[in-house]
Design goal:
The protein is 2% helix and 32% strand. By secondary structure, the protein is mostly beta strands. It has a 5-stranded mixed β-sheet with strand order 2-14-11-5-6, with no helix packed on it. A 4-stranded mixed β-sheet has the order 8-3-1-13, with no helix packed on it. It starts with a strand and ends with a strand.
Length: 202
Amino acid sequence: MAVPEISIQLSLSPTTYHFSNPIAPELSLTVTSDSDKPFTFFTWSTLLNPRRSLRGNHFVITDLTTGFEVPQSPSLCAKRGPFKRVRGCGDEEYLLTIEPSLPKVVSFSFGGGNDFRPLPKGCERGGSVIHTAKGVDGLEPGHRYRLDVAEGPLRVWWRWGTKDDILVDGSDVASRSLRSLKPEKSMPKFTPVDGIEFCVEE
């Protein structure tokens, strides 16, 4: 069976962000496939994980006003135990099924978060001056930027079938770990992702 060819489209709303707004813009990734069969990603370490997408060096931000790449906040390597594929457990959220002819949209805050609002570069937060960016947080007002997916192959754990095909009941002790299920041998084909431009203002 041929591996699926996958396209990802970026969009940002709004495309002009004002630091006077405490809510960061929303970044959306629309995933589509040419396959006539469903398949499922495990998204933990990928740009399709809303909780870690801005922490894993998945994106490149270029300041089009200066022509330089923007330094981003260091990625965080969270240590944790084996992932489970038990129906109803917390790890279930990292299984993302792509259905035939049905785009899947993954959206998340492009900077800021529940615990802080975005601030410009050079401002102080928690006793430290902001020198790096996380989404719009740490960017400079009056500048225009471009967001691209970082170069290099996108590697993901994936299998044919839906999330429900992968999940097991908690009573099935031998199969609780995701490691008990081998991924497909060949990686899907990802088409090049077009970057998007946006502006930041006071």
